[in-house]
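Batch job 17 of 40 flagged for manual review because the log was empty.
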Amino acid sequence: MIPLLALGVVLLAGWAFYSPLKVHYQESREQARLEAELASLQERNETLNAQVERLKTPEGVEELARESLGMVKEGENLYVVVDPDADATSTAAGVADTPEIPGSLWNDLLDLVFGVR
C-alpha cells in the first residue's frame, strides 16, 4: 500500500510541475538560441565594419573595383580563369544562417519530453 501511495504522490508531483518546467526549459533553450544568434551577428558586424574601414582607403576602393567590378587600369589586360569543378550553387555572400545550438543527449531527451523544436 505504501509503495502505491508513494507512486501516486510522485505522479501527482510530476503532473503538477510539468507545465512550469516546460515553460522554463523552452525559455532557456530560446535564450541560448538568441545568444548564439547575437554572437553570430556581432561577428558579422565586426567584419562589415572592417570592410567599411578598408573601403575608406584608396587601396580598398581599387581592390573592390578590381575584384567585384572587373575594372582594370589603363594598359592592363584582364584574364578570367574559370574552374570547371567550381560549385555553381554557392550561397550568397553575407547571408548568415541561424546558428544551431550544440546539443547533447540530455538536451535531446529534454527536447523530446518538453516538445521543443
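Reviewer: the log was empty due to a logging misconfiguration, but the result itself is present. Residues 2-55 form the longest helix (54 residues). Unflagging and moving on to job 18.
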